[in-house]
């Protein structure tokens, strides 16, 4: 056996137990320390239901989950279904789709377990499965065959165990490297006209990782997918020969002595969970070492972690180690942190999130202000404990940056974020741990102490400054041809009390109204400064064609449904929290802005606000047309700030653009009105009452419309409110290069 060979057996087995007899209903996959994945029909079996039942499991308590280790270690936990994709029978096919279930564990899995590492399933892969009970003798070998319509067929040999009942929901291990390529689902039975018994001997099927990933993302469980450990793309193809050749001379300088090379590579093998050669095996070749450093994500950082103390007082070898790390920084599949550094930072930042959920996002927006941040940080939201690992993985790929000395490497983005998080941490012990971690990593990377000290000083200055609180959230909605109706690209920015405006990175994809509503809520909640209330106003920028949009009725979700850590314990007493939601107009004072008109009439809008005329113009006469309204706003109502439009949609669609084109900053109407007889429906709003209280009165009315009194009123008030003191970001102007 050579060096750096993956262990062929998993370190532990996971299974879902039946409620009737506590025996394994099927296997399961450990996605993270707090989540498992299995087949939905395994959950049905555990409950004693029909295997292909599609109803959500209405189970009063938690399911029992067993863990078994290779060294006879055992443990039992409990989990609750958080994602249910029921089996979906396919017409004319012996297989079915869907059939996935994610369970959240009530307590973390035992320390000796480890989440699986996924990779895409490919035809010809040699795979191995175990019965859910975990007995070693139950292993069954099979080979991945044809993939079709989201499933992959499996063919096993006629010797040894066969995949059968009790194997469903368990992982299919890739025999060559102990990664997982999918879930075992079922056998293909020979009761159909297309296949006879001799055709289906030991033929089964699986759901590949690529299908699992797509199905869970489509079901809105992208956060679960992001939490999974995945073999990085391109690893299977091996490193480029030029990269191996570039590393070999540096490795020769560092590991020329075979004994020293063996010692360091033995430590690396343990970290990689590889089998270590015994019996006086020869040291690995330099090419073997270079290959593993370029194919295993954290191998180079882990090896340098053990080498750094040994070369501290040997300048030539220290320079060789720094050059080796520099080569790693330009490779696509080399991570910044070692296994130990990554594990420590995950724990430290998870502690920060539990103490102050908004701290990491605030620190990232300041420490990395000129970078395009990951979505989970850029939405001014509060990352959860489950988000921490994904944040670290994203930031490890960020380029180095910042001021450095000529002899030193730059301070990486991840260290800068950690320094800013430490500076803003109230717990002095936790702050010291974060800074000690930064010192150790910086020393390994050969970052000069003055460079790191400069970043630490910047962080302390920022932490001591109390930022101006956010008072309003703005968003621009942009539809596109060819997109499904009701989907928009969404830009978001924050207005601070001191008048500054800060943009927020948002998804580039077109989003549904519900996705935009949730995004706005998370942005508003996450922007709240310590001791300050969250912003209560939302301005929605639209084009002329979308002034009738029902944005105030868009759902924003709820803290309970989104599973904030501090509220997750309420699931037992509030089992239906996923249905809780609040409309955007009930939660915030929502107003529309249409800069297509105000760009041309900005001076007129400003003049009308300055006139501060207390009178309003109520348009409630069916005879008022475009010409009549134009004359009114040009003469007797030249200084009017507010217009209330009544009447049917045909009349409003002609008069509303006139109001905006004439620079009227505030326009109110009922977009559900069908005639002038509906005008009294706005009386509860007091449409001509005190102007400064109009947004609050409108929010109160919308709360009644979309809240407990939903369905009792058909009024749908809409408001345009152009505030000239809060300027909008200018759209990008593109031109051909000179």
Oligomeric description of these chains: single chain
Residues in β-strands, percent: 15-25%
Helix share, percent: 25-40%
Number of strands: 25
Approximate shape? globular
Question: Could you describe the largest sheet, including whether it forms a barrel?
Answer: 6 strands, antiparallel, barrel
Mean pLDDT: 84
Low-confidence stretches: 402-407, 563-575
**Order of strands in the sheet with most strands:** 2-3-4-7-6-5
Count of helical segments? 21
Radius of gyration of CA atoms, rounded to a whole number: 31 Å
Helix-and-strand structural type: alpha+beta
Terminal residue distance: 62 Å
Mind explaining what this structure looks like?
This protein is α+β, with helices and mostly antiparallel strands and 738 residues long. Helix content is 33%, strand content 20%. It is built from 21 helices and 25 strands. A six-stranded antiparallel β-barrel has the order 2-3-4-7-6-5. Strands 9-10-11-14-13-12 form a six-stranded antiparallel β-barrel. A five-stranded mixed beta sheet has the order 19-18-17-20-21. α4 (241-254) crosses α6, α13 runs antiparallel to α14 (428-445) and α19 (626-634) packs parallel to α20. The chain is globular, with a radius of gyration of 31 Å. Mean pLDDT is 84; it is low at 402-407 and 563-575.
What's this entry about, in short?
With 738 residues, this protein is α+β, with helices and mostly antiparallel strands. It contains 21 helices and 25 strands. It has a six-stranded antiparallel β-barrel. A six-stranded antiparallel β-barrel has the order 9-10-11-14-13-12. A five-stranded mixed sheet has the order 19-18-17-20-21.
């Amino acid at each position: 056996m050579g060096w750096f060979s993956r262990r062929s057996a998993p370190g532990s087995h996971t299974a879902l137990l039946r409620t009737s007899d506590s025996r394994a209903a099927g296997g399961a996959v450990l996605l993270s320390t707090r989540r498992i994945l299995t087949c939905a029909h395994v959950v049905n079996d555990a409950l004693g239901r029909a295997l292909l039942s599609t109803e959500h499991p209405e189970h009063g308590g938690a399911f029992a989950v067993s863990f078994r280790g290779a060294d006879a270690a055992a443990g039992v936990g409990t989990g609750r279904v958080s994602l249910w994709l029921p089996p979906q029978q396919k017409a004319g096919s012996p297989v079915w789709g869907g059939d996935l279930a994610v369970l959240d564990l009530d307590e973390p899995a035992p320390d000796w377990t480890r989440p699986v590492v996924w990779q895409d399933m490919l035809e010809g892969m040699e795979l191995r499965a175990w019965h859910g009970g975990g007995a070693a003798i139950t292993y069954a070998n099979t080979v991945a065959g044809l993939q079709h319509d989201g499933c992959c067929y499996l063919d096993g040999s006629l010797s040894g165990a066969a995949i059968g009942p009790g194997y469903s929901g368990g992982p299919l291990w890739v025999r060559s490297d102990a990664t997982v390529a999918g879930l075992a689902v079922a056998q293909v039975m020979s009761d159909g006209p297309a296949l006879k018994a001799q055709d289906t001997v030991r033929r089964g099927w699986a759901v590949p990782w690529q299908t699992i990933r797509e199905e869970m993302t489509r079901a809105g469980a992208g956060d679960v997918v992001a939490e999974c450990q995945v073999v990085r793309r391109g690893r299977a193809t091996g490193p480029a020969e030029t990269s191996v050749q570039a590393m070999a001379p540096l490795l020769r300088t560092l590991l020329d002595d075979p004994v020293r090379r063996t010692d360091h590579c033995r430590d690396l093998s343990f970290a990689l969970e590889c089998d270590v050669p015994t019996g006086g095996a020869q040291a690995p070749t330099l090419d073997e070492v270079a290959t593993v450093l370029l194919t295993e994500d954290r191998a180079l950082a882990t090896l340098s972690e053990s080498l750094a103390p040994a070369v501290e007082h040997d300048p030539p070898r220290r320079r060789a180690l720094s050059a080796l790390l520099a080569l790693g920084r330009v490779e696509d599949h080399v991570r910044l942190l070692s296994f130990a550094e990554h594990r420590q930072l995950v724990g430290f930042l998870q502690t920060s999130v539990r103490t102050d959920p908004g701290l990491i996002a605030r620190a990232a927006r300041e420490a990395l202000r000129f970078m395009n941040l990951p979505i989970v940080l850029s939405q001014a939201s509060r990352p959860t404990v489950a988000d921490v690992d994904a944040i670290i993985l994203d930031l490890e790929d960020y380029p180095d940056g910042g001021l450095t000395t000529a002899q030193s490497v730059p301070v990486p983005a991840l260290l800068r974020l950690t320094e800013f998080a430490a500076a803003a941490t109230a717990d002095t012990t936790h702050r010291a741990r974060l800074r000690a971690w930064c010192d150790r990593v910086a020393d390994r990377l050969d970052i000069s102490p003055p460079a790191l000290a400069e970043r630490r000083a910047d962080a302390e200055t920022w932490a001591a400054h109390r930022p101006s609180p956010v008072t309003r959230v703005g968003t621009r909605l942009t539809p596109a041809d060819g997109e499904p109706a009701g989907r928009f690209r969404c830009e978001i920015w924050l207005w601070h009390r001191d008048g500054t405006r800060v943009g927020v990175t948002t998804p580039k994809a077109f989003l549904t109204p519900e996705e935009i509503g949730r995004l706005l809520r998370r942005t508003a909640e996450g922007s709240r400064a310590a001791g300050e209330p969250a912003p209560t106003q939302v301005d929605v920028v639209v084009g002329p064609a979308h002034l009738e949009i029902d944005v105030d009725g868009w759902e924003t979700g709820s803290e309970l449904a989104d599973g904030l850590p501090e509220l997750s314990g309420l699931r037992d007493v509030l089992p239906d929290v996923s249905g809780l939601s609040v409309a955007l107009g009930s939660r915030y004072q929502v107003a529309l802005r249409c800069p297509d008109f105000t760009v041309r009439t900005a001076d007129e809008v400003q003049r009308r606000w300055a006139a501060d005329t207390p009178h309003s113009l109520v348009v409630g006469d069916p005879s008022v047309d475009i010409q009549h309204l134009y004359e009114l706003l040009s003469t007797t109502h030249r200084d009017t700030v507010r217009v209330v439009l009544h009447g049917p949609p045909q009349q409003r669609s002609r008069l509303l653009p006139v109001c905006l084109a004439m620079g009227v900053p505030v326009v109110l109407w009922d977009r559900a009105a069908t005639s002038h007889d509906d005008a009294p429906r706005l009386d509860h709003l007091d449409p001509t009452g005190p102007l400064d209280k109009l947004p609050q009165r409108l929010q109160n009315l919308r709360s009644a419309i979309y809240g407990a009194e939903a369905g009792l009123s058909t009024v749908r008030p809409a408001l345009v409110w152009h505030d000239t003191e809060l300027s909008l970001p200018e759209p990008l102007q593109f031109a051909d290069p000179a």
